[in-house]
Write a structure and sequence with these properties.
The complex is a heterodimer of chains A (272) and B (257).
Chain A: H1 9-44, H2 51-61, H3 66-90, H4 97-135, H5 138-144, H6 149-188, H7 192-202, H8 205-231, H9 237-270
Helix pairs in contact in A: 2-6, 3-4, 3-6, 4-6, 4-7, 4-8, 4-9, 6-7, 6-8, 8-9
Chain B: E1 9-24, E2 27-39, E3 42-46, H1 53-60, E4 68-73, E5 76-77, H2 83-90, E6 93-96, H3 108-119, H4 125-138, H5 154-166, E7 172-176, H6 184-201, E8 204-209, H7 212-218, E9 221-226, E10 229-234, H8 236-240, H9 245-254
Parallel strand pairs in B: 3-8, 3-9, 6-7, 7-8
Antiparallel strand pairs in B: 1-2, 1-4, 4-5, 9-10
Classes of the chains: A mainly alpha (272), B alpha/beta (257).
Chain lengths: 272, 257
């Protein structure tokens, strides 16, 4: 768009204002998230402790995710083993399959897949649940009945996701390794003992430690994003849908970023 | 449940508000509200949608902070209260929300127990159960105890919402649009319930509404909120005995001759 005298300055100024407004919005959002996380750390150590609610959330988040996690983990093991075989077979190295699968699953696949499933199932659940509670004034109702809704709803859910994603990750690892064993046993005739000896020989303590640590970080992220989006959802049913959707997208995006960053850190630690 | 109306104690002011102002961005919602609520009184706040009626009771319960003005509830300055002090005051205030705000994931029993088990930790299981029975009986819905909120009608949900506030035996009740979205017969039931609550539990109440039938039935005193200020106050008849076109229009829309 040009003005009649050909002066492009007002257009540029308008564009700059739009960009600056958007940037303001982004920084405001970041500030709000930072203060949300800060409030979590302040409230998590202050009594009263919501043990019952934390356990209930662990059940909702952990136990109820088991069917989906079981199926996914098992299939990943089979598929990964199947897809890796031709490449190793070319070099006559199919005996390395258990080691390869073990490293891939323990170091990367199990934490990432569990976190992505968690972001989808748990993130959307938390975002929608808190969003609908916000819209229907249930959060305010809690507040006027002298209950701290942040502690009861947010702290308990973030703790539950932080605890349960690593637990689910270990379960996924186990099932994926089991799926891979069934495949390698059917094709190469590898025994259970030989397979798991190779599996455990291939990994070191750092692999397990880093997987558990980054899974806890993924869990924390999923919890924070789901709670933040739900707790601050705008009024109306549209807001609830947006909160659920945005929880999933943001959590998945952050999980990938964290995976990339943690990879750099762990690689650096590995060669220390 | 038929009880006689309590005598209004004009010497005992449970809520005292002076010069209350509240705005959201450029929108001035309350522009210098003064209000007194006396012990045992049912005060109806009338006004069109969006005039700040709900904002007023949210400020009284500490859910919102005023921009200026004093809000004294049961001798305490609400905007200055924080944490435990505010919680202690909130235990004496019952807030019935427009959409009932029942916890969807809990049964009616759990909904009613929730404020009690969290704030009266010294109570035994039997005492909690007894209180739940009493308030459910007070709203006439004992049979719903094991149902989920989604299984109830709008009127039943309102009643359960009121029961949940009653369980803490509040001194003050705040009703946000208690008859909104209900059929006329259920409205009459809710109006009667508000009067019964006042008589049985000796509460002082603020009822926010734009339903004139409700205002006429439950209000000992009626105030009209216009342009962020109380323009008229008195009995129902006194408020509407005026030449102010806006007030007359409000009346005529509700009561079509």
């Amino acid at each position: 768009m040009k003005f009649h005298n050909g002066d492009e300055k007002p257009v540029k100024r308008a564009r700059t204002q739009v960009i600056s407004k958007r940037l303001d919005g982004v920084f405001m959002e970041l500030q709000n998230i930072a203060s949300f996380i800060g409030r979590f750390f302040r409230e998590v150590f202050m009594p009263p402790y919501e043990f019952k609610e934390i356990i209930r959330q662990c059940f909702e988040i952990g136990v109820k995710s088991l069917p989906l996690i079981s199926l996914t983990g098992f299939i990943i093991g089979i598929v990964f083993m199947n897809q890796s075989r031709p490449s190793l077979a070319e070099f006559g190295a199919t005996s390395w399959l258990p080691s390869l699968v073990s490293i891939a699953i323990v170091r990367a696949l199990a934490p990432l897949v569990t976190a992505l499933i968690g972001a989808g199932r748990i993130g959307s659940m938390i975002g929608a649940e808190l969003g609908s509670m916000k819209v229907t004034e249930q959060i305010e109702a809690m507040e006027v009945s002298a209950t701290n809704p942040f502690k009861f709803l947010v702290v308990s859910r973030i703790l539950a996701t932080t605890f349960m994603i690593p637990a689910l990750m270990m379960y996924t690892t186990l099932l994926a390794l089991l799926g891979a064993f069934l495949n390698v046993n059917a094709n190469e005739g590898t025994t259970f003992t030989t397979y798991f000896t190779q599996v455990f020989d291939a990994i070191v303590f750092l692999d397990i430690f880093s997987s558990v640590t980054k899974s806890a970080l993924f869990g924390f992220t999923i919890g924070v994003v789901g709670c933040y989006k739900g707790y601050h959802s705008s009024k109306g049913t549209e807001g609830v849908g947006k909160a659920a959707n945005s929880s999933v997208v943001t959590a998945m995006f952050l999980v990938f970023i964290e995976e990339l960053l943690s990879l750099q850190v762990i690689t650096a630690l590995r060669y220390l | 449940m038929k009880e006689t109306k309590p005598v209004i104690d004009r010497s005992n002011c449970v809520i005292n508000i002076r010069g209350l102002e509240k705005s959201f961005g450029d929108l001035d919602v309350l522009r210098g509200v003064d209000l007194d609520l006396y012990k045992g009184e049912n005060l109806v706040v009338l006004g069109k949608s969006g005039t700040g009626k709900s904002v007023l009771i949210k400020i009284i319960s500490g859910l919102l902070k005023p921009d200026t003005g004093t809000v004294n509830v049961l001798g305490q300055e609400v905007p200055k209260l924080k944490g435990r002090e505010l919680d202690q005051l909130r235990l004496k205030i019952g807030f019935s929300f427009q959409n009932s705000a029942l916890y969807d994931s809990m049964t009616i029993r759990k909904n009613l127990e929730f404020p009690l088990v969290r704030n009266r930790r010294d109570m035994t299981r039997a005492e909690v159960d007894r209180m739940v029975e009493i308030v459910l009986d007070a709203v006439g819905l004992s049979q719903t105890i094991n149902q989920m909120p989604s299984e109830l009608s709008g009127g039943q949900r309102k009643r359960i919402g009121i029961a949940r506030t009653l369980i803490l035996q509040p001194e003050i009740m705040l009703y946000d649009e208690p008859t909104a979205g209900l059929d006329p017969i259920t409205c009459i039931d809710i109006n009667n319930l508000i009067n019964e609550v006042q008589a049985r539990f000796n509460t002082s109440s603020i009822i926010i509404t734009h339903d004139l039938t409700c205002a006429k039935t439950v209000g000992d005193r009626v105030v009209m909120l216009l342009d962020g200020k109380f323009r008229r106050q008195g009995t129902f008849e006194e408020v509407f005995n005026t030449d102010d076109e806006r007030v007359k229009l409000f009346h005529d829309y509700n009561f079509i001759d």
